[in-house]
Write a structure and sequence with these properties.
By secondary structure, the protein is of the alpha/beta class. 40% of the residues lie in helices and 15% in strands. Strands 1, 2, 3, 4, 5, 6, 7, 8 and 9 form a 9-stranded mixed β-sheet that branches. Strand 7, helix 7 and strand 8 form a beta-alpha-beta unit. The longest helix has 15 residues. Bound molecules: zinc ion (ZN). The site of zinc ion has 5 residues, from loops.
Length: 283
Amino acid sequence: MRTLGALLAPLLLALPAYAADYTGPLVDAHSHLPGATAIDSYAAAMKRHNVSKVLLLGVGGVQKDDAAWITAAAQKHPDRVLPGLPLPDPTADAAATRLEAELRGGRYRAVGEVHLRQVSRSIDRDPDDAALGRVLDMVARHRVPLVVHFELAGAPIDAFGRALEKHPNATVVLAHAGGGPPDRLRALLAQHPNLMVDLSGMHFQRTPALATETGPLDPKWMSLIKKMPDRFVMGLDVWAPRLFEPAMLDRLMKWTRRVLGELPPDVAEQVAYRNAAKLYRLD
Ligand SMILES: [Zn+2]
């Protein structure tokens, strides 16, 4: 006679294996600070949700004290903070020269966030700009990725592709997945091995979102991530003071682990941790 367990087994196998939150190692590969002391509430939330590292970036010239806040945060929480180097004006003639001096010490894990195309702020820089090309050469020489905000919708994709092609040794991380859509992103990733994608700021408070606060991971994003699991890193992209309230950080971090939990466990660990560890030199 078959036991109840034997009868239920096929049903249980039919359930997705990813129904539980992802509990493995997690890096926030893209966030910002809104002030000098915000890092403390963030570090406390990291502890609560077992987020091991955060890459802190500038917000493209909006906050003139970015660099000082990031440096102070890295000094106060050296085991958690990976400092990124802000570069407010990536198409200035002197940008690459300035980078050279800053990158020499080797303490920065990334340069950015650099805003090439952000429609809401009327920023639309030529990705194939000559000065930006020198910046790409410089980050390549120092083996530091450049985190770029470049909204793909309505963008000069060819110029973006040309810049990636001309600087094959530079690693460019497309922030917020360029806003998608996934099929356009897929073509870019297939053509450009030096392109990585961060899924930061695609949470339930923003558009496009990977998922609502309680809903499933969008199947198109899921399918792309599963096809190219070595090209994605996860991030929260917190920046405004209200996002640093403990209850909000709890919601964002819980959402992140829930969404990652929908991916096959091995893919989830790549996206949550292993890709970022390689890209941003975690030892
Ligand atoms: Zn950002």
